[in-house]
Amino acid sequence: MGLQLFAATTSQGKLRDFHTAARAFGVSIEPLPGIEEIEPPEEAGTTFAANATLKAIYYSKFAPDEMVLADDSGLEVDALSGAPGVRSARFAADAGLVDSPDANDNTDVWNNMLLLQKMAGIPAPLRMARYHCVLACAKNGALYQTADGTVEGTILEAPRGTGGFGYDPLFYLPQLGKTMAEVDLETKLGLSHRGRAIAALLAML
Q1: Among 72, 108, 148, 168, the one annotated catalytic
Q2: Structural domains of the chain in order of their starting residue, each with its CATH number
Q3: 179, HSE (Cβ side, Cα atoms, 13 Å)
Q4: Among residues 54, 113, 123, which one has the least CA distance to residue 84?
Q5: Dihedral (C-alpha) 160, 12, 147, 56: value to the nearest 10 degrees?
Q6: 168 counts as catalytic
Q7: DSSP 3-state of 17
Q8: Contact at 8 Å (CB) between 205 and 136?
Q9: What is the per-residue pLDDT across 102-135, written as a single tens digit (0 to 9) for each?
Q10: Which DSSP category does 114 fall into?
Q11: pLDDT tens, residue by residue, 141-174
Q12: Could you tell me where the beta strands, DSSP code E, fall in 52-173?
């Protein structure tokens, strides 16, 4: 049997990325069984690496002898001094616009609206940003390996595309002339921050 990993996430967008990676790399990446019933840990880290590591270690304790994969990722905007960064999923919640991030509500819409408000009036040459992802893999409560990936782009003044999730409709890839929400999953895997992090991690494993 090939490599088996369990992903510690309930995000359907992240799970789609992981399933696409599994097909591409010939491994099995499935949701951690019963994760919906597990009380999530507080993501108190100030870096993506810290949060990914604490989540991987925490959730691995609920799957004895299994390799558990966790990620922390987000958008870093130069004009906003690197914000929203580790608070990317909670950007609007931190501003009091929504109660909490939830894959089943309109959090992505609110996050994108807030980003557009904060970027209003900033000229195109100064709208540089990057997606950054850190993946951590743990087993039996011990960190096994970490990997990270980034992709550079710019923030548009209006959303484009209906694919992806998070800030994808605003994240423009100059080399393709498309937003992350306008590329197919296989293309996204090859150039995205999460895809690059997955490739680096699986090469190590």
Answers
A1: 72
A2: 4-204 (3.90.950.10)
A3: 19
A4: 113
A5: 150
A6: no
A7: helix
A8: no
A9: 655 688 999 999 999 999 999 999 999 999 999 9
A10: H
A11: 999 999 999 999 999 999 999 988 899 999 999 9
A12: 67-77, 128-139, 142-155, 171-173
